[in-house]
C-alpha cells in the first residue's frame, strides 16, 4: 500500500467536505472473539493492529437525544436488541424492528412525496414563526403539527404507531413532530426548510 499522505482525521474531514482523500477511509468492526483472534494472529496490541491495517479510527458526532426515556434495550429508532450466545461467542442481535408491522413494499409516488416534503417544510417554518406561543402553551412536550394546527401534544409520541392512519383525510399533508424546548437544544435548522421550499417550488 502506498504511503499515506493524510492523517485519519484529515482523511475523514476530506470525505465530509466532499473533497478527494489520499485513499478511501478504512473502518474496522468485529465481535469481541473475532477481535481477540485477530490480535493473537498478528501478535500485537489493538493500536498497532489499527496502524498496520491502515484503519482510520472514528470520532462520532450527532445530536443529543432529548426525548422520552426509552425502554431498556431499545434505541431511539425503536429497534430492540438482546445478546445472543453462539458456539463461538456472543453477539448483540436485533430482535425487533420498527418496520416489522409493515405488510407491503408499495411505495408512494414521487408527486405524493414531493407534497409531503413541501408541507413538512411549511410546518417547520410555521413553528418558527409561532415559537413563542408554542413554548408558552406546550413547553416541555412534543407536538405534531399539520396544516398550521397542533394535531396532538404530549410527553411521549411513541404510542402513535401509524402516521398513515394519524394523518386522517390529509394523506399528502405532512405531520411535523417537534419537541417544544425553550432552549432549542435540538438545534433545529429552520433555514434548511426555506432552502428546501425554494428548491421544490422552482421545479
User: Number of domains in the coordinates?
Assistant: 2
Spatially, the strands of the biggest sheet line up as 4-3-5
Percent of residues in helical segments? Answer: 25-40%
Give the radius of gyration. 23 Å
> Termini, distance in Å?
47 Å
Given the C-alpha coordinates, what overall shape results? Answer: extended
- Give the class from helix and strand content and strand pairing: alpha+beta
Mean pLDDT: 87
SSE order, one letter for each helix or strand = HHHEEHHEEHEH
Keywords:
203 residues; alpha+beta; 2 domains; 3-stranded antiparallel sheet; 7 helices; 15% strand
Structure description:
The protein is α+β, with helices and mostly antiparallel strands and 203 residues long. It has 2 domains: 55 residues, no CATH class; 93 residues, no CATH class. Helices cover 35% and strands 15% of the residues. The chain is built from 7 helices and 5 strands. The protein has a 3-stranded antiparallel beta sheet, with helices on one face. Strand 1 and strand 2 form a beta hairpin. Helix 4 packs antiparallel against helix 7. The longest helix has 20 residues. The protein is extended. The mean pLDDT is 87.
Amino acid at each position: 500500500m502506498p504511503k499515506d499522505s493524510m492523517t485519519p482525521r484529515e482523511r475523514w474531514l476530506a470525505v465530509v467536505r466532499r473533497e478527494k482523500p489520499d485513499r478511501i477511509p478504512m473502518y474496522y468492526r468485529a465481535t469481541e472473539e473475532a477481535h481477540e483472534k485477530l490480535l493473537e494472529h498478528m501478535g500485537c496490541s489493538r493500536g498497532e493492529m489499527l496502524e498496520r491495517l491502515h484503519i482510520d479510527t472514528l470520532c462520532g458526532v450527532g445530536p443529543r437525544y432529548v426525548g422520552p426515556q426509552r425502554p431498556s434495550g431499545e434505541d431511539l429508532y425503536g429497534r430492540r436488541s438482546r445478546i445472543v450466545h453462539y458456539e463461538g461467542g456472543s453477539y448483540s442481535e436485533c430482535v425487533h424492528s420498527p418496520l416489522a408491522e409493515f405488510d407491503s413494499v408499495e411505495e408512494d409516488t414521487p408527486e405524493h412525496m414531493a407534497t409531503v416534503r413541501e408541507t413538512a417544510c411549511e410546518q417547520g417554518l410555521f413553528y418558527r414563526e409561532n415559537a413563542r406561543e408554542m413554548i408558552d402553551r406546550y413547553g416541555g412536550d412534543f407536538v405534531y403539527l399539520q396544516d398550521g394546527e397542533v394535531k396532538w401534544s404530549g410527553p411521549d409520541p411513541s404510542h402513535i404507531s401509524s402516521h398513515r392512519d394519524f394523518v386522517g383525510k390529509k394523506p399528502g399533508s405532512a405531520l411535523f413532530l417537534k419537541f417544544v424546548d425553550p432552549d432549542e437544544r435540538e438545534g433545529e435548522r429552520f433555514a434548511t426548510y426555506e432552502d428546501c421550499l425554494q428548491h421544490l417550488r422552482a421545479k
